[in-house]
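Milestone 3.1: sequence recovery, worked example.
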């Protein structure tokens, strides 16, 4: 199968909204008056972001999901994406499920594939997404104000827990491994929540590198600090409720420490961390309903810079949690965040 047959078979679809899709030198997108285009790129590299034997369907899903998550964090509605793909070989038994995973998620968000590039080489997937947002209404990292509540959507840390099991650092019972692996391999971008938060949140980011790291970006760009309640955060690990399942491997204290590390610094979650004024608590709850995902309030923004962790009694908890940095040393290689 040649390059053009491959594109034709697996990636060319009739366009619905774009003025021109796959097949010419450029795709053409119509820009609506009063709207701004939101653009983001994320690359997935084999051995760095995924295991070589990962299921191609889930890889296609994840490659787009991590990009849609960036649009969600900005409150942008997905429109279209491009796909730059380096492949060691053109095998239909790999390309068919890969394109299906990719295009199933694309269809679910009415986001069309309008172009890309295909080349032979080590497996590498680079997607650029285009979304739209009413001018001036995008959610930014820079809007958090002292006194604002801090929230996070869904659950956190399960992807990192799965990674630890897949790297052989811990063992998980099969049902727990399957559930956490699902979170790692098929994250759900919180697009509807992002849209619902447009007029509500003061700042937002998606959690790709770990909660504290991504919240840290909001703090830095908003020139504020924060206090985060670790006793609330711990329960964001969906697997936390099942300590009995890992009995024998960890005592209660070790399990709590692992849960906290997964939640605060795991990464690869693709949930939204956001801030909103205390006066908007009802609106945040309504946005969560509209986004069909629970949100948890886990702290507040302070005028004083720095990030403080506290326990349920408000006593300080030591912050030993570094978030992911591709160029910093860390114990894991594959499966890290985008
Ligand atoms: P050019 O040489 O002008 O860059 P190509 O020959 O690389 O164009 O690609 C032909 C057409 O196929 C272009 O419209 C391009 O956007 C599209 N395309 C190439 N690879 C992909 C891909 N992996 N997914 C979607 N469209 C692709
Ligand atoms: Mg080309």
């Amino acid at each position: 199968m040649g390059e053009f047959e491959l594109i034709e078979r697996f990636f060319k679809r009739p366009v619905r909204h774009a003025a021109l899709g796959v097949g010419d030198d450029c795709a053409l997108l119509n820009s609506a008056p009063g709207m701004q285009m939101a653009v983001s790129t994320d690359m997935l590299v084999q051995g760095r972001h995924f295991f070589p034997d990962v299921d191609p369907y889930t890889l296609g899903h994840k490659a787009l999901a991590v990009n849609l998550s960036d649009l969600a964090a900005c409150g942008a509605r997905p429109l279209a994406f491009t796909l730059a793909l380096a492949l060691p070989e053109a095998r239909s038994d790999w390309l068919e499920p890969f394109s299906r995973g990719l295009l199933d998620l694309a269809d679910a968000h009415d986001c069309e594939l309008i172009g890309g590039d295909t080349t032979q080489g080590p497996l590498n997937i680079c997607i650029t997404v285009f979304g739209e947002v009413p001018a001036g209404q995008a959610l930014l990292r820079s809007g958090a104000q002292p006194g604002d509540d801090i929230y996070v959507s869904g659950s956190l840390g399960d992807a990192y827990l799965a990674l630890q099991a897949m790297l052989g650092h811990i063992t998980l019972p099969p049902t727990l491994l399957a559930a956490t692996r699902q979170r790692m391999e098929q994250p759900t971008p919180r697009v509807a929540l992002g849209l619902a938060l447009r007029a509500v949140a003061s700042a937002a980011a998606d959690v790709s590198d770990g909660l504290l790291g991504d919240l840290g970006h909001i703090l830095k760009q908003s020139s504020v600090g924060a206090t985060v309640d670790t006793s609330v955060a711990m329960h964001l690990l969906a697997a936390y409720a099942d300590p009995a399942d890992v009995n024998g491997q960890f005592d209660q204290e070790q399990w709590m420490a692992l849960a906290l590390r997964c939640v605060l610094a795991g990464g690869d979650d693709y949930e939204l961390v956001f801030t909103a004024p205390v006066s908007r608590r009802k609106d945040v709850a309504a946005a969560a309903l509209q986004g069909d995902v629970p949100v948890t309030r886990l702290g507040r923004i302070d005028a004083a810079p720095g990030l403080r962790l506290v326990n349920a009694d408000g006593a300080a908890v030591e912050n030993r949690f570094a978030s992911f940095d591709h160029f910093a040393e860390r114990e894991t290689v594959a499966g890290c965040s985008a």
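The pocket of magnesium ion (ligand 2) is lined by residues 117 (CB under 6 Å). Residues 330-338 have pLDDT under 50 and may be disordered.
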